[in-house]
Amino acid sequence: MDESGFNLAPTGELVLAPAGRHVYIESRNSDKENITTLFCVNASGCFGPPLTLYKYARLPAVAALSAPAHWALGKTESGWMTAASFYEYIGNVFLPFLNEQKIQRPIIVFLDGHKSHLSLQLSEMCRDNGIILVALYPNATHILQPLDVAVFKAIKSRWKTYKRQWRIEHDGNEVTKFDLPSILNKIIQEDQMPNNVVSGFRATGIFPFNENAVDYRKIIQRSPPPAQLLENMQNEAQNMNLTHLMHVESKIDPQKLEDFRATMIEGGPWSGDVADTSKS
């Protein structure tokens, strides 16, 4: 279970056109808003009811009229997932879905460790209803979250295609936020999508369970420091050594230091006292 943002505005693409001519398409209704949608999938390749969040204080009726019947809708002040909206989704949408499908429990739900997913009220409700929440390791969802590994990229690629085709079929008008659920519903029902989901669970080693299936090469490795950084580190070390030396010399008789420096410059051996007896 995880959410992702979907941009409504068309993204840039490479085009071939005569030099010196204006080839940009002017949009009459450019909306740069990102719409958050949560997806739920299982290891057999099936999708649970998704949730799309809108940035509204009061959800307009057109949102409900435009979305598929099984598609959940929510609202938050920011348009992003919150602990309250996620709790409402689990209690009002996900649990009824499990009951309707007669899915045997307990079940495990893998999600990231975002604070919106890990409230006390949610944990208690899940505990009482046979849902085991497992928060994936931080900064590791790109290798451990099936949706991130094999599903979201495919969905967004198709979403980009649909946005472009929408403008062609609707006289240059862009897709609106209320059209998003119906389009995403078409995408997740495409024939290849269940295979992507199954591949995601396999590639993350969740099902079939296999810790060796994880692509650990995607873990960011520390690269050798660049030359400038290495030089700065060396300079800092030298400055630190110089500071320590100055502290030691401040405890030695100045005349003795002058004699020692003169002897070192001349290259001769030091013939003075080995141990300093001057008072600090």
Automatic annotation (TrEMBL):
One of its GO terms (molecular function) is DNA binding. It comes from the Eukaryota. It holds the Pfam family DDE_1. One of its GO terms (cellular component) is nucleus. Signal peptide: none annotated. InterPro entries: CenT-Element_Derived (IPR050863), DDE_SF_endonuclease_dom (IPR004875), RNaseH_sf (IPR036397). This is Uncharacterized protein. The lineage of its organism: Eukaryota, Metazoa, Ecdysozoa, Arthropoda, Hexapoda.
